[in-house]
Design brief:
The chain has 274 residues and is an all-alpha fold. The chain is 63% helix and 1% strand. It is built from ten helices and two strands. The chain has a two-stranded antiparallel sheet. It starts with a helix and ends in a 7-residue tail after the last strand.
């Protein structure tokens, strides 16, 4: 079991994550979109499109206008998730001494890393608890919720709880050993995982999350770019000139054996004078 969990499961999880994500994105791009889905008013200039993307991706502008409580919970979760991922990356690589790059001593850097990491973890757990409470306590939200919604929240919550558990007094994580182990995975020379129950539980839950990610609604983090691109496409011109492409650039080009002309993306028509 230790061999499978420490040396096989991470590669299975990474492979399923990569392959599953690519297949789903390809499936989205190949799905026929017969007409433009441009959401009016749409920015025309490139900087306007960049702002439309950024405002939705980073601050959830539309959600803010419709539901302030949900917006706050969602924003807190995504911000703390980003901070946690960055903290894992730099904290493990620099052994929590990354703040020494900004002038702090090694001891102060380690203390700062623990404080920030613990705070981000607690805020993430609280935001996830709030999102879960909404799905259980609010009748209109509960009616629209499916088992998959609860499963995703509970799985992420389990990962966060197992991570914050390692911050409790009496539990020590040997970061140099963890860094060596993760480095061995990246170099395709896997070593045995650290013999630390909290770390192993957290690590297994993370791998389960990676396995589940491509098949869950958490893929909205990637599907966002496809959807927003369609909504921000350059709008068609009316009346439509002859020989003008009518289908969205996302439309799949499929040719019917019985009707080869079905692959055409343009049509001609006379515009009657008014």
């Amino acid at each position: 079991m230790e061999f499978f969990v420490g040396r096989i499961l991470p590669y299975i999880a990474a492979g399923v994550l990569l392959a599953g994500t690519c297949l789903r994105v390809i499936g989205w791009l190949r799905t026929p979109v017969p007409f433009h889905l441009t959401l009016f008013p749409v920015p025309v200039k490139i900087f306007g499109k960049i702002w439309a993307f950024a405002s939705e991706f980073f601050i959830f502008r539309t959600l803010y206008r419709h539901d302030r409580v949900l917006w706050l919970l969602t924003l807190l979760f995504h911000v703390t998730l980003a901070l946690t991922l960055a903290g894992h990356l730099f904290g493990i690589y620099f052994l929590r001494e990354q703040f020494a790059l900004f002038g702090l001593g090694p001891g102060a850097s380690r203390q700062m890393s623990r404080i920030l990491g613990g705070t981000a973890g607690i805020v993430m757990i609280c935001s996830l608890g709030g999102l879960l409470y909404r799905r259980i306590a609010m009748p209109e939200v509960k009616r629209l919720s499916e088992p998959e919604n609860f499963l995703a929240l509970l799985l992420i919550l389990a990962v966060a709880l197992s991570g914050i558990f390692m911050y409790l007094p009496g539990y020590h994580i040997d970061l140099p050993t963890v860094r060596t182990y993760l480095g061995s995975l990246l170099s395709a020379t896997p070593l045995s995982p650290p013999r630390n129950a909290p770390f192993v539980i957290h690590f297994v839950l993370v791998n389960i999350l990676l396995l589940y990610f491509p098949f869950s609604r958490m893929m909205h983090s990637i599907g966002f770019f496809v959807i927003r691109t369609m909504l921000l496409e350059t709008p068609p011109v009316y009346p439509t000139p002859a020989n003008t492409r009518q289908r969205s650039v996302f439309a799949a080009k499929k040719v019917s054996p019985e009707n080869p002309a079905s692959s055409q993306t343009t049509f001609n028509r006379e515009v009657e004078p008014r």
